[in-house]
Amino acid sequence: MNNHFSTLFATIFLCFFLLSFPTPSLSAKWNPQDKKAPSPESLTKLKNLTTLCFTNTDLSGPIPSFLSKLRSLDSINLAYNNFSGPIPASLVPKSFANAEFTSLDFSRNKLEGGISFFFGKNKTLQIADFSRNLFEFNLSKVEFPNNLVFLELNRKKIFGILPEDLTKLQLQLSNVSYNRLCRKIPTGGRLQNFEETAYFHNLCLCGAPLAACK
C-alpha cells in the first residue's frame, strides 16, 4: 500500500472510528485498557497521517502531548470536547506555530491563553475555528495568513482592535462576536459583507455593519 492510500486509510480510520461507538468511546485519560479506542502509542506510529479528528468524544484535560509526534499533520479537528488549559508550544515540534497547517478546529472546548502563534503572513492556514473557548489575547498586532478564508473567533475574551490587514483577505466567513474588541471596523475587503451578528456584543466595536462610531 503506497503512502497516499495508507494516509487515506489512517485518516478515515481516525475520523470515523470513534463514531462507531457510544460516547465516550475514547476515555479522557486515553485508557490503554479500552480496546475500543486507539492508544496514543498506536497513533504516533502513523507517520504519514495528515488529518486528525476527535470530535464530540467528551475528551477532557489538556491537549494530549502525543500530538507532537504526528509530524505530517496539516489538519486537526478537536471540536466539541472538554479540553482545557492553554495550548502549550512545547507540545509539538518547536510548537504548533512552526508546523504548516491548512485547517484547525479547536472550537467548543474550554481552552485558555493565546493562539496568535498559529497565525502569520507566511502560514498556510486557510480554515481557523477557535470559537467558544476561553482564549484571551490581544488581536491588534496579529498577522493573518494570506490564504485564510474562514476565521471563527467568536465567544472568547479577545481584546484590542481588528487589524487593518484583515481587509486584504478573501474571507468567505468571519465571526469575532462576543469578545472585548474596540474601535472602528476596518473598511475594505470583505469585512463589510458580513452581517452585524459577526461583530456584535463586543466592548466598543463600531462602524459598518455596526452603528457608526461616535
From TrEMBL:
The keyword Amino-acid biosynthesis does not apply. Keywords: Signal. It holds the Pfam family LRR_1. Residues 1-27 form the signal peptide. It is found in: Cell envelope. Transmembrane segments: none annotated. SUPFAM superfamilies: L domain-like. Its main location: other. This is Uncharacterized protein. The lineage of its organism: Eukaryota, Viridiplantae, Streptophyta, Embryophyta, Tracheophyta.
